[in-house]
Amino acid sequence: MLSACLGALVGTQQIVAMANSRTDGSVAAIVATQAVILAVIANSLLKAGLAVSLGSPALRRQIALVRGATAAVGAASLWVMH
């Protein structure tokens, strides 16, 4: 799970790899699903942080809302699955 989060900070390859490991049976479905969700949350928060720190005020608001909503939905999904 940690590798999914860290990998998502630099790209989406880790997300794809975890999804593929679910289809070949090397990882349980619930673990793969949770790892993908965590990776998406980590990726969204990183990109939101970059946009907030580097972007214009208008971009900051838009990105913060969309990426914040993405992270919130992901967190809610993890909570429901747990």
In short:
With 82 residues, this protein is mostly helical.
Record the SSE blueprint:
Elements: H1 2-10, H2 13-23, H3 29-54, H4 57-81
Helix pairs in contact: 1-2, 1-3, 2-3, 3-4
Provide the succession of SSEs. HHHH
Work out the radius of gyration: 14 Å
- Percent in helix: over 70%
Question: Which structural class fits the helix and strand makeup?
Answer: mainly alpha
Largest sheet: none
DSSP strand tally: 0
What would the average pLDDT be, to the nearest integer? 80
> Given the structure, what is the number of helices?
4
Anisotropy-based shape: elongated
N→C terminal distance: 14 Å
Number of domains: 1
What percentage of amino acids are in beta strands?
A: under 5%
> Uncertain spans, ≥5 residues at pLDDT below 50?
none
Task: Give an account of the 3D structure.
The chain is mainly alpha-helical and 82 residues long. 87% of the residues lie in helices and 0% in strands. The chain is built from four helices and no strands. It has helices at 2-10, 13-23, 29-54, 57-81. Helix 1 (2-10) packs parallel to helix 3 (29-54), helix 2 (13-23) runs antiparallel to helix 3 (29-54) and helix 3 packs antiparallel against helix 4. The longest helix is centred in the middle third of the chain and has 26 residues, at 29-54. It starts with a helix and ends with a helix. 23% of the residues are buried.
